[in-house]
Each structure stands twice: as structure tokens, then as C-alpha cells.
């Protein structure tokens, strides 16, 4: 990636009075990739983005684009969607976008063409003559994204662009971000919608207490010495169930009985049991093919409908990373984190 222009966030520190908002915040985003920035409320996402934009100064550290410190000229080439939004409510959508583009030095005809292009792509062309305040919040957000794009930015920095959007708007916005990334633009956005981040992003940065605690592709972050397997097969009744705590492998916290066929397997731990669905973890030093013994044991006890490697979702990874570092809260809007709560088993790949 060395020949690809890169936005480097390099060892940023920032305090607001006695509040240490950023400490050694470091990561980079390459041209052409979508980078998801996730972390608890107050973790420092907005502060990092504001410093990148130059609307806030860091106490220490530097932001570079293509190897050089970000100066006013580069900042003008960043498309920014601030968390607090920032459109003029009484101004008409089209006039506002043309005005913003003109402020960036575009000619009137260029500004109009860009306004038409982005309002059409974002599905708000029919609202160009309406005041911003008359639009629904989701449509205002589409206009806000159009405002970030109308100047043909080389870098996109978007603070929670998806919050509050309906699924169709999420798809529209995702498509636009993907298209911009494919055109070579680095796209960085913050979100608490972890499923969306997992689906859309090439790489993810998980931050906590003002610092990055994990950065990489979802697959990089999934690197773990243990393997988990889901068996949809004989339940506890079918294979001689054992009460929680009564066998070698344990069971989930709901007190469901783990199937006996699983508990009898050496080097295998029962992670969770949900009726006929059992998730097992192989010991880190399990031999190649150890999962075949699991499958055989299950088949000996009864029919198996599904046998799948379980790969942790971003929600699971987030929980592991943030819990391991002792966070006391986690992203909570849209109910996405709780969707995965059962057993902490993650999504089957
Ligand atoms: N203007 C400010 N004055 C004082 N403290 C601030 C200010 N802005 C942010 N902070 C504090 O800095 C820390 C980081 O806040 P920041 O807004 O960057 O977090 P965030 O990750 O964007 O959070 P959220 O997900 O809730 O938007 C928090 O402790 C916050 O209370």
C-alpha cells in the first residue's frame, strides 16, 4: 500500500481541561478503503475527527496526508460530516449545496452540476427547492452527506453518518461510500452500528479511552488460537445431558443442559447450548481435524442438521477487546450489540 496516499493519524494526544480525551491515538487509512471507527460513547472518535479536520488542535501528535502534515490546503479537500450536522435549516437544499461548493471555489455551473449529481445519487433531488428544516431527519442526513461530497473531496471523514437512517437510506449511503472508496478516496466513518461496520468496512479501528486497542480487517481481528464449532444436532435429551457444572466441559450461563456426547469429548469445552444448537470450543492445541471427532460424537448420539465453524462477529470482537481492557459501557444504539448477546457465540460464517 506504500504507493497509495494515506491519511495517518499519528500519536495524537488531546485533553479538555482535566479530561484526557486522546492518548497516543494512532492509525492510518489508505486511499480506496473504508475504515470504520468504533468505540464506546466518549472514547474519542469525534475528537479525533475534529483534529483531522483542523477544527480542533491536538496537544501532541500529527495528522498527515500522503506523507505531509495536513495543512489548510489539504483540509479544504476533506469532505466532513460533523456529528452535530451543520446545515442552515431555513436555506433551500439546492441553494445550500451550491453555496457550499461556491465557498470552496467552484464556479456556479460546476457547483450546480455537483449539486444535481449528488442530490440525485442520494435520492433527494426532488427536495432541492425545499428548506432543509422541512425534510425528515433521514433526508437531512442525505443532504448532509451531499454537502460533504459536493466539493469532490479527496478524503471523507464522516461522524456517525448512518445513525437514525432507515434501511433504504443505509443502503443508499453505503453504496455512495463504496463508490467513493472505489474511486480512490479514503473513507473514515464512526458508528455504533457494528453489523453495518462489519459489512461495509475494509478495516476497523476499535478505540477505548482515547486510544486504539485493535486495528485491522475483521479477519485480522478474528485471529484467535481457538476454534468454535456449532452443532445443530442431538440436544441434551438425545445424548445423555449433564446439568451445568456437572460435566467436564461446562455449559452456558442460562442453566441449559449441555449434551453428554459433547461433554465427554477431551479437549472440548461447551460454550453454549440453545436447545439442539450447541457451540463447542476446541483447545488451542487441538490437532488438525479435531473437529471431526466432535462431528462423529454428535452423529453417534443422533442426526446432525448443521455443523459449522463459528467465526466471531465484530460485536463479539468488540466485546472481547473492550471487556479485556475493562470498559464499562459499549455501543448501544440501534440495539445492534444486544442482537448478538445469546451465548456470545458469534455469527456462523
Ligand atoms: N468540548 C469539550 N469539552 C470538554 N470535554 C469534552 C469536549 N468534547 C469532548 N469531551 C470529552 O472528551 C472525551 C471524548 O469525547 P468524544 O466526543 O471525542 O467521544 P466520542 O467517541 O465521539 O463519543 P460518542 O460516541 O458519544 O459520540 C469524552 O470524555 C468527552 O466528554
UniProtKB/TrEMBL annotation:
It is a peripheral membrane protein. It comes from Luteimicrobium subarcticum. This is ABC-2 type transport system ATP-binding protein. Keywords: Antibiotic resistance, ATP-binding, Nucleotide-binding, Transport. InterPro entries: AAA+_ATPase, ABC_transporter-like_ATP-bd, ABC_transporter-like_CS, ABC_transporter_ATP-binding, DrrA1/2-like_C, P-loop_NTPase. The lineage of its organism: Bacteria, Bacillati, Actinomycetota, Actinomycetes, Micrococcales. Belongs to the ABC transporter superfamily. Residues 327-336 have a biased composition (Acidic residues). Residues 7-234 form the ABC transporter domain. Residues 227-258, 325-349 are annotated as: Disordered. GO terms for biological process: response to antibiotic. GO terms for molecular function: ATP binding; ATP hydrolysis activity. It is found in: Cell membrane. One of its GO terms (cellular component) is plasma membrane.
Amino acid at each position: 500500500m506504500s504507493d497509495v496516499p494515506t491519511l495517518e493519524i499519528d500519536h495524537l494526544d488531546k485533553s479538555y481541561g482535566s479530561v484526557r480525551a486522546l492518548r497516543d491515538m494512532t492509525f492510518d487509512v489508505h486511499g480506496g478503503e473504508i475504515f470504520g471507527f468504533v468505540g464506546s460513547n466518549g472514547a474519542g472518535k469525534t475528537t479525533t475527527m475534529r483534529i483531522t479536520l483542523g477544527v480542533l488542535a491536538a496537544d501532541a501528535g500529527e495528522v498527515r496526508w500522503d506523507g505531509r502534515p495536513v495543512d489548510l490546503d489539504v483540509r479544504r479537500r476533506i469532505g466532513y460530516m460533523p456529528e452535530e450536522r451543520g446545515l442552515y435549516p431555513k436555506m433551500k437544499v439546492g441553494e445550500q449545496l451550491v453555496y457550499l461548493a461556491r465557498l470552496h471555489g467552484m464556479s456556479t455551473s460546476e457547483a450546480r452540476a455537483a449539486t444535481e449529481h449528488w442530490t440525485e445519487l442520494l435520492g433527494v433531488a426532488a427536495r432541492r427547492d425545499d428548506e432543509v428544516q422541512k425534510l425528515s431527519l433521514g433526508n437531512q442526513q442525505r443532504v448532509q452527506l451531499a454537502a460533504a461530497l459536493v466539493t469532490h473531496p479527496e478524503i471523507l471523514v464522516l461522524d456517525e453518518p448512518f445513525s437514525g437512517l432507515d434501511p433504504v437510506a443505509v443502503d443508499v449511503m453505503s453504496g455512495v461510500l463504496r463508490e467513493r472508496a472505489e474511486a480512490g478516496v479514503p473513507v473514515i466513518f464512526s458508528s455504533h452500528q457494528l453489523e453495518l461496520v462489519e459489512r461495509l468496512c475494509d478495516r476497523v479501528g476499535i478505540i477505548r479511552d482515547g486510544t486504539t486497542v485493535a486495528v485491522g480487517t475483521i479477519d485480522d481481528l478474528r485471529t484467535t488460537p481457538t476454534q468454535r464449532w456449532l452443532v445443530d444436532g442431538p440436544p441434551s435429551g438425545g445424548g445423555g445431558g449433564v446439568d451445568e457444572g456437572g460435566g467436564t466441559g461446562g455449559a452456558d450461563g442460562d442453566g441449559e443442559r449441555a449434551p453428554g456426547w459433547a461433554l465427554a469429548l477431551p479437549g472440548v469445552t461447551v460454550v453454549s447450548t440453545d436447545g439442539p444448537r450447541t457451540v463447542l470450543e476446541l483447545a488451542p492445541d487441538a490437532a488438525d481435524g479435531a473437529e471431526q471427532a466432535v462431528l462423529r460424537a454428535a452423529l453417534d448420539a443422533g442426526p446432525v442438521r448443521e455443523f459449522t465453524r463459528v467465526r466471531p462477529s465484530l460485536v463479539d470482537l468488540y466485546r472481547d477487546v473492550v471487556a479485556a481492557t475493562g470498559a464499562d459501557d459499549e455501543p448501544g444504539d440501534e440495539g445492534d450489540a444486544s442482537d448478538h448477546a445469546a451465548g456470545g457465540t458469534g455469527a456462523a460464517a
